Amino acid sequence: xxxxxxxxxxxxxxxxxxxxxxxxxxxxxxxxxxxxxxxxxxxxxxxxxxxxxxxxxxxxxxxxxxxxxxxxxxxxxxxxxxxxxxxxxxxxxxxxxxxxxxx
Length: 103
Description:
15% strand
């Protein structure tokens, strides 16, 4: 069951605690938005289709590109070319989290 509380700043926070899942929490401008989000997340949990996005919100795209470079690409024949491409991509995605990037 979700808990929806009004915060001191006037916004609404929805928090979901369910066994087997990490605590989910998000803040909204209106109470109805918070309730809808909570219903959607709980529905996904009921259907076992829920995937937490907390790590994607925290990790920056530039850090993910750097990790991918280190883990997968340093031994490739075209490492120099790939490194240049990754550096350019890091400039394009500067400041964005993984969750901010879409297709």
